């Protein structure tokens, strides 16, 4: 089956740490990176096109767009840093630039030259090499190490926009300018060399025809240095003086991170989300002045990159927390700074890494939770963010109800079931599950499962009742998967276990345990017959009926898996940010897609198998279209669009919100009516005032016009008189000018004649010198030709000699080659002969080794039996170690519960601080409302006065207004009283806060003392344990330990009721555990006792047989064979085949039985010796009387050594 393809549909996110990550290609198209892709975003149509990253790279580090807006260069991190150039029209790859001259794995900055011929690439650590690429020819023009000898970091490299041979770089204590020529790169003198070195964060060339080398440089101290013609021309301080509030008396220094030139000057972006505009000035000293300052509301992150449209109507900026904002510049000269606001370009993205993702069925929505403490709802059809909710804590997991109306989010303190309202996400029910890392709704939506440590809890969605718990995992549960009919649940945990549960009786039906693998994600077919799992062992496993059938090695850690319901494709996410598409059934073939630059944390497929959702640690949400190899959808999604079957549009609205909105609408309608009447009345008044003013102005200007006419006539007469006077003066001046000209002509005519005579004399001198030089030149030519002829003859003779030497060396070389060929042939023959000999030798050795291997296999069987016995002993020891580990674990749990109590107290202090802040905020709101009421009272007073002047008295309405004013005064008095009460409450809360802080400090001191005492007790207890083999010393040591640590009588402490209940609950649990362990111990003791009795019985029978054999030996000796040795006696015994009537096989069985009995006797003797030693130790360490001997000791077995000797022979 062919591989399923993924086509990017939309991306919500930005890679904020890339250099120059915002670039405009035209007035409505923006280029920016997201994950490992470059997004070409159309701002009007809100559409996206994608440039996929290069394979085997680790993310985008910098962007650059050519001056003609036709090409984009993308720098990516890899083993060898690589730059890829793409065509922005076709989005096809044009060139790939990589070289081994750069030791760094990345380029920190890239830039096109103005004519697009070169690309400047500034390499990173350790060599910090600046490379000038002739990118169309894919070769390096020149390169140079641009950093200092200490390897200070560099941040930016940029060409001069008016001179493509000038390029500058800046960094920590470095600002250098280079000139590019055919011979290489030459460093020019720096204007900042005389200044003390600073950390230069960024710079920009200012496009000024009169000053080609004018550049502005930003330092980390907020200083802007303007250099011109190699000299420092001006210093500016970047500050937010234009946006400081009324309460702030001094401006704040702004750390400039980026500079962008434009036609009127330049723009700076920096810390605190501040944007500062500097415009050109006509002043010769202050060539630039600060004109406008803006700050992004509710976002104090640094502005890292800036971009401006070609028509300079919009400036876009990217911030440190991965957001893109836009500011319109069309009305920059008209509006004030506070009247212009930043707008989010495209959508608001996650600020930090995304932890989980899920989707629903009835709506085109996706839910995500992130480390930025937000839960966001995205619409992938409208390509918008519908809801954003901020929480005080981070969300670890999220599950979306199939209806699209509810979500389940796991926080650090609780698991919350929330409703999606029209404009809010509101909590409906809270569950006491802390740090829930995995939760999931069933396919029908009537149930949901939530992970609580190593337990899975099943709840009813609509009653919120815990209907069952699934226990069995020894580690944390990492992934859940429901069957299609919701009757089964598959779970996988960090303990390497995969369990299949039935929801009807909440029992485990199937299981598979692999302790060496900690599973992170599972998926399954609709009937859960086949399960796909990934984990820490870097393998992709397929389990059929909970048995591993396929185990595919992967060269990278897989984090998440998702299987299409049609089960013809499997998607796997990796820890390096790529997605793999596997064919299903699995055969190991896959196709890899570049997705994000961090580990993928979530992977989900839509219900119709047409969309794949992916989230990662780099704060991006990717939506892919799932297509087959021909580009067709995998299901009937396109058919549903053609039939106009749309998603559900219902939303949830609470009754209180609806009533509030209706009440607000009625209030607004009343206010509109009142304002309409008031405005109409004010318009009539203004109209009367304007008519009177127009009449006054008309009379005034008529009078002024008549006076101006008389003035004009007087000025006209004066003008005519002055014209006549100046005509006479002009005639006199012309006559004087003519006389002066004639005088000057005579003087200069005489000077010209004298210069002509001087010229003729110099001409004659020149002719004489030319003749003399020609004679000298002829003599030099003759001598030069003679010298050349002599040198030519000399070097021809040397050349002939060298040719003779060359022929001789050529002949010697041919002789040596022939000799080498003959030696080579002989060596090859010797090597072949030696190889044949070695082959025969090693074949014989291999046959011998095979025979030894067969013999060793037989011996291995016996060793395996011994190993089984030893393995059983090892298991017993492990059980004992496990019990000790459980005791240690219980102690650690006690310590952790105490630490949790400390955390709870700290959290309570934090909550009380927040409560105090809320109270202060409420007081401020009440004061603000009080001011609004005073303004409203003033308006009403003014309205009453106007009504008295213009309208007939309406005493009834006036009385009602007075009553209303009295009510408002009373309400104002009540507010004042409430303010006084709130001030008292605040003072009480402050006192409580102080008391709590003192209590916390005392608790911390007590905890420190307790920890010190525990450490001392640990040391003393360790010393006491050393006497575990000496009961008397152990007893004395325990008494000494008690006297040392129990210095006063301990009185019982009254515990809190909740703590007592928790203690009782834990005590019951521990008692049950102890009872179960006692029962297990009793069973094991009985089994051990029965084994001991069985061994003793066997021992008794063996001793009887030994005694009988001894009696037989003594009897044989008494019959006359006593003179024979034991060895001869054994030889006289009848052979087994004669007595038994069997063959050689019977003799072998008998010898094996004898050998086994001998081994068992040896083991029993060893056990007997060890137990005797133990008894001696116990008797020596205690005053217990020794046990009386019940019988005499057995005599030594005289025949045992003889039998051993016989066997050895």
TrEMBL record:
Domain of life from the UniProt record: Eukaryota
Keyword DNA-binding: no
A Pfam family it matches: WD40
Record keywords: Cell projection, Cilium, Coiled coil, Flagellum, WD repeat
Coiled coil in keyword set: yes
Parts forming coiled coils: 651-678, 709-747, 774-915, 944-999, 1060-1119
PROSITE patterns cross-referenced by the UniProt entry: WD_REPEATS_2, WD_REPEATS_REGION
Name of this chain's protein: Cilia- and flagella-associated protein 57
Natural source organism: Chloropicon roscoffensis
């Amino acid at each position: 089956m062919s591989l399923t393809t993924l086509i990017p549909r939309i991306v919500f996110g930005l890679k904020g740490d890339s250099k120059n990550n915002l670039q405009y290609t035209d007035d409505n198209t923006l280029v920016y990176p997201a994950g490992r892709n470059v997004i070409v975003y159309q701002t009007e149509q809100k559409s996206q096109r994608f440039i996929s990253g290069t394979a085997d790279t680790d993310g985008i580090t910098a962007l650059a767009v050519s001056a003609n807006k036709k090409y984009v260069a993308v720098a990516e991190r890899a083993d060898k840093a690589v730059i890829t150039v793409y065509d922005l029209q076709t989005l096809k790859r044009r060139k790939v630039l990589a070289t081994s001259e750069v030791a760094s794995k990345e380029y920190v900055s890239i830039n096109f030259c103005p004519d697009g011929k070169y690309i400047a690439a500034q390499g990173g650590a350790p060599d910090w090499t600046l490379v000038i690429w002739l990118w169309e020819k894919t070769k390096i023009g020149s390169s140079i190490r641009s950093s200092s000898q200490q390897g200070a970091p560099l941040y930016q490299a940029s060409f001069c926009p008016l001179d493509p041979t000038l390029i500058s770089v800046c960094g920590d204590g470095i600002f250098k300018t280079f000139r590019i020529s055919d011979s290489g790169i030459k460093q020019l003198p720096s204007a900042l060399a005389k200044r003390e070195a600073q950390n230069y964060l960024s710079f920009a060339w200012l496009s000024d025809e009169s000053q080609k080398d004018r550049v502005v440089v930003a330092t980390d101290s907020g200083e802007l240095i303007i250099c011109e013609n190699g000299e420092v021309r001006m210093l500016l301080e970047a500050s937010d003086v234009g946006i400081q509030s009324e309460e702030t008396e001094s401006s704040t220094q702004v750390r400039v991170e980026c500079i962008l030139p434009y036609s009127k000057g330049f723009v700076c972006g920096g810390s605190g989300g501040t944007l500062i505009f500097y415009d050109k000035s006509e002043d010769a000293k202050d060539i630039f002045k600060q004109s406008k300052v803006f700050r992004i509301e509710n976002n104090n992150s640094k502005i890292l990159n800036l971009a401006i449209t070609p028509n300079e109507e919009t400036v876009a900026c990217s911030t440190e927390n991965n957001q893109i904002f836009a500011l319109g510049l069309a009305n920059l000269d008209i509006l004030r700074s506070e009247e212009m606001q930043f707008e989010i370009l495209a959508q608001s993205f996650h600020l930090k890494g995304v932890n989980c993702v899920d989707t629903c069925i009835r709506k085109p929505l996706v839910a995500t939770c992130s480390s930025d403490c937000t839960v966001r709802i995205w619409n992938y059809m409208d390509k918008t963010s519908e809801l954003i909710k901020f929480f005080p804590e981070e969300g670890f997991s999220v599950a979306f109800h199939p209806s699209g109306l509810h979500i389940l989010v796991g926080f650090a303190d609780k698991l919350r079931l929330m409703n999606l309202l029209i404009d809010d996400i509101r909590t409906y029910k809270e569950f006491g599950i802390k740090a829930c890392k995995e939760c999931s709704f069933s396919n029908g939506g009537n149930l949901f499962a939530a992970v609580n440590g190593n337990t899975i809890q099943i709840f009813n969605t609509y009653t919120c009742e815990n209907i069952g718990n699934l226990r069995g995992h020894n580690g944390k549960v990492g992934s859940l998967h429901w069957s299609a009919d919701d009757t089964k649940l598959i779970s996988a945990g960090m303990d390497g276990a995969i369990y299949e549960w039935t929801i009807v009786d909440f029992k485990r039906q199937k299981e598979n345990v692999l302790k060496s693998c900690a599973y992170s994600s599972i998926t399954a077919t609709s009937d859960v017959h086949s399960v796909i799992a990934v984990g820490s062992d870097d393998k992709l496993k397929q389990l059929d009926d909970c048995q591993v059938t396929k185990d595919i090695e992967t060269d990278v850690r897989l984090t998440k898996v998702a299987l299409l319901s049609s089960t013809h494709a499997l998607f796997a996410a990796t820890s390096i940010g790529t997605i793999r598409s596997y064919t299903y059934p699995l055969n190991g073939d896959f196709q890899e897609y570049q997705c994000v630059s961090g580990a993928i944390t979530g992977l989900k497929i839509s219900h119709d198998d047409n969309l794949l959702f992916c989230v990662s640690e780099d704060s991006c949400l990717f939506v892919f279209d799932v297509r087959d190899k021909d580009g067709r959808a995998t299901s009937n999604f396109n058919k549903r669009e053609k039939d106009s079957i749309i998603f559900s549009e219902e939303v949830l609205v609470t009754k209180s919100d609806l009533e509030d909105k209706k009440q607000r609408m009625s209030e607004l309608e009343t206010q509109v009516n009142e304002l309409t009447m008031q405005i109409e009345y004010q318009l009539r008044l203004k109209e009367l005032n304007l008519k009177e003013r127009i009449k006054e102005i008309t009379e005034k200007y008529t009078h002024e016009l008549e006076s101006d006419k008389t003035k004009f006539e007087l000025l006209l007469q004066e003008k005519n008189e002055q014209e006549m006077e100046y005509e006479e003066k002009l005639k006199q001046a012309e006559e004087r000018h003519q006389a002066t000209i004639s005088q000057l002509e005579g003087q200069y005519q005489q000077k010209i004649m004298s210069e002509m005579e001087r010229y003729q004399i110099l001409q004659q001198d020149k002719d004489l010198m030319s003749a003399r030089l020609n004679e000298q030149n002829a003599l030099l030519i003759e001598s030069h030709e003679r010298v050349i002829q002599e040198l030519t003859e000399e070097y021809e003779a040397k050349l002939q000699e060298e040719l003779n030497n060359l022929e001789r060396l050529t002949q010697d070389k041919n002789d040596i080659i022939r000799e080498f060929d003959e030696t080579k042939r002989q060596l090859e023959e010797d090597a072949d002969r030696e190889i044949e000999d070695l082959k025969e030798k090693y074949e014989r050795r291999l046959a011998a080794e095979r025979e030894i291997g067969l013999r060793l296999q037989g011996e291995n069987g016996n060793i395996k039996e011994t190993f089984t016995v030893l393995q059983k002993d090892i298991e017993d020891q492990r059980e004992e170690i496990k019990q000790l580990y459980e005791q240690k674990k219980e102690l650690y749990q006690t310590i952790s519960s105490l630490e949790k109590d400390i955390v709870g107290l700290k959290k309570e202090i934090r909550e009380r601080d927040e409560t105090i802040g809320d109270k202060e905020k409420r007081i401020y709101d009440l004061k603000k409302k009080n001011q609004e009421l005073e303004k409203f009272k003033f308006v009403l007073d003014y309205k009453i006065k106007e009504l008295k002047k213009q309208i007939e008295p309406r005493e009834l309405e006036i009385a009602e207004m007075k009553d209303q004013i009295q009510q408002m005064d009373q309400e104002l008095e009540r507010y004042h009283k409430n303010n006084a009460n709130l001030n008292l409450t605040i003072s009480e809360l402050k006192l409580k806060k102080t008391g709590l802080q003192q209590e916390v400090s005392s608790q911390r001191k007590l905890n420190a003392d307790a920890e010190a005492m525990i450490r001392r007790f640990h040391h003393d207890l360790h010393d006491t344990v050393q006497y575990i083999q000496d009961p008397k010393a152990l007893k004395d040591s325990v008494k000494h330990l008690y006297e040392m640590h129990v210095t006063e009588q301990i009185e019982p402490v009254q515990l809190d009721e909740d703590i007592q209940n928790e203690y009782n609950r834990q005590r019951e649990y521990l008692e049950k555990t102890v009872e179960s362990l006692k029962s297990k111990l009793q069973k094991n003791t009985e089994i051990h006792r029965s084994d001991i009795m069985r061994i003793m019985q066997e021992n008794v029978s063996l001793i009887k047989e030994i005694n009988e054999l001894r009696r037989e030996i003594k009897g044989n000796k008494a019959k006359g064979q006593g003179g024979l040795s034991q060895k001869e006696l054994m030889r006289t015994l009848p052979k087994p085949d004669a007595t038994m009537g069997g063959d050689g096989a019977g003799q072998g069985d008998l010898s094996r039985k004898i050998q086994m009995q001998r081994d068992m006797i040896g083991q029993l003797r060893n056990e007997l010796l060890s137990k005797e030693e133990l008894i001696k130790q116990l008797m020596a360490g205690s005053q217990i009387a020794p046990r009386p001997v019940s019988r005499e000791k057995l005599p030594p077995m005289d025949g045992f050594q003889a039998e051993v000797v016989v066997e050895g022979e």
